[in-house]
Design a protein that fits this description.
globular; two-stranded antiparallel sheet; Formate dehydrogenase/DMSO reductase fold; mainly alpha
C-alpha cells in the first residue's frame, strides 16, 4: 500500500498550525485585553489563568514552522522572503511578550511597563499573524521556483483586514477563556465584553469571507461553482449555527460553551482557508507536491513525528487537565 506522503504531511502541518492558533490565540487575546482590565488583581488573575500553559502552547508554532522547513522546503524558501517583515515582527513580539510575562512579577515600580509590553507584544504578534495569513491567501508571486515579488507586497488592504480580524478573534478567545476560568463580577464583565467581541468577530469573518473569493477566479470557482457549492455552502451554515450557540451560551451564563463556540469559529475559518487553498500550499501556483521534499526525507521525518506527536498531545492535554477549574485570587504564578 502506497501513501501520499506530501498529502499526509500537509495534513500534519495544517493540524499543528490550527492547534497553535486555538491554544496560543486565547493567551494572546488575554494580552490584548490587558489595558481594559480594571485592577492589577484582575490582571494577575488573567495572567495566572494561562501561566501553566502559555509557553507549551507555542510548541505547536515551532512544530508547524520546523515541519514546513523540513518537508516543504520550497514553500519555506518562497514564503519566508515574501513575509520577512510580518514574520520577524511576530517573532520579536512573542519574545518580548515572553520576557514581559516573567518580569512583571518581579517588580512593583515598573510593573506598568511590563503590562504595556505584554499588551504590545500580544497585539503585534496577533496582527502580524493575521497579516501574514492575508498576504498568503492573496497570493505570492513565484518565478523559476523563487519569490519574485516586492518587499512590501504583503501589505495590502486585504491583509490588514485579516490582521484586524485575527486580533479581534483572538481577543474573543481570551475573553471567553476568562469567562471559563474566573468567577464573580470579573466573569460577568468578561461575558458582556465577549458579546461585543463576538459581534465584531463575526462582522470581520463576513467581510473577509466576502472579499476572499474575488481575490482570484480560482477561489470564486471553488466556493460558488456547482456542485461544489453543495459542500462549501455548509461552512457558512455551520458558522451561523456556531454564532447562535455562542450568543446562547453567553446569555445562559455558561462557562464552557462560549469558549468552545469561539474555538469552533476558528476551526471553520481554517476549513474555509483549506477550501480556497487546496491543493496549493503557496497560492496561486505552488502545490503541496511541487513543494515537497523527496519521499525518503518525508518518510524519515514521519517516523519521528509519529512518535513525538502523541507525546506533545499527551503532555498538552495533561497540563490542561491538571490546571482545570476556576482560578482564585490566592493562586499565584511561580
Amino acid at each position: 500500500m502506497e501513501f501520499d506522503l506530501p498529502f499526509i504531511w500537509a495534513g500534519i502541518i495544517a493540524f499543528a498550525v490550527l492547534v497553535y492558533v486555538v491554544l496560543d490565540g486565547f493567551d494572546l487575546g488575554i494580552g490584548i485585553l490587558f489595558p481594559f482590565l480594571k485592577t492589577e488583581e484582575e490582571r494577575d488573575l488573567a495572567m495566572n489563568s494561562v501561566a501553566p500553559v502559555w509557553d507549551g502552547n507555542e510548541t505547536w508554532l515551532v512544530m508547524g514552522g520546523g515541519g514546513l522547513f523540513a518537508v516543504f522546503p520550497l514553500a519555506y524558501a518562497t514564503v519566508l522572503p515574501a513575509l520577512y517583515v510580518p514574520l520577524t515582527a511576530m517573532l520579536l513580539a512573542l519574545v518580548f511578550r515572553g520576557v514581559a510575562f516573567e518580569y512583571r512579577w518581579r517588580t512593583e515600580r515598573w510593573k506598568w511597563v511590563w503590562n504595556l509590553a505584554f499588551f504590545g507584544g500580544s497585539l503585534v504578534a496577533s496582527l502580524m499573524q493575521g497579516i501574514a495569513l492575508g498576504a498568503l491567501v492573496q497570493g505570492i508571486e513565484v518565478e523559476n521556483r523563487a519569490y519574485a515579488g516586492g518587499w512590501w507586497d504583503w501589505l495590502t488592504p486585504y491583509s490588514v483586514l485579516t490582521g484586524i480580524g485575527v486580533a479581534v478573534g483572538y481577543t474573543l478567545l481570551g475573553s471567553t477563556w476568562l469567562n471559563l476560568k474566573i468567577e464573580g463580577a470579573f466573569q460577568e464583565r468578561m461575558r458582556m465584553v465577549s458579546v461585543r467581541l463576538a459581534i465584531a468577530t463575526l462582522a470581520l469573518i463576513g467581510a473577509v469571507s466576502l472579499a476572499t473569493p474575488f481575490l482570484d477566479p480560482v477561489y470564486y470557482e471553488r466556493w460558488f461553482s456547482w456542485p461544489r457549492f453543495a459542500l462549501t455552502g455548509v461552512v457558512p451554515l455551520l458558522v451561523a449555527v456556531t454564532a447562535y450557540t455562542l450568543f446562547k451560551g453567553l446569555s445562559n451564563k455558561s462557562d464552557a460553551i462560549p469558549f468552545l463556540a469561539s474555538i469552533t469559529l476558528f476551526v471553520l475559518g481554517f476549513a474555509g482557508i483549506g477550501i480556497s487553498f487546496y491543493p496549493n500550499i503557496v497560492p496561486p501556483s505552488l502545490t503541496i507536491w511541487d513543494a515537497a521534499a523527496p519521499d525518503s526525507s518525508l518518510e524519515f521525518a514521519l517516523v519521528g513525528t509519529l512518535v513525538l506527536l502523541p507525546v506533545i498531545l499527551g503532555y498538552t492535554a495533561y497540563a490542561y487537565y491538571v490546571f482545570r477549574g476556576k482560578i482564585r485570587a490566592e493562586d499565584g504564578y511561580h
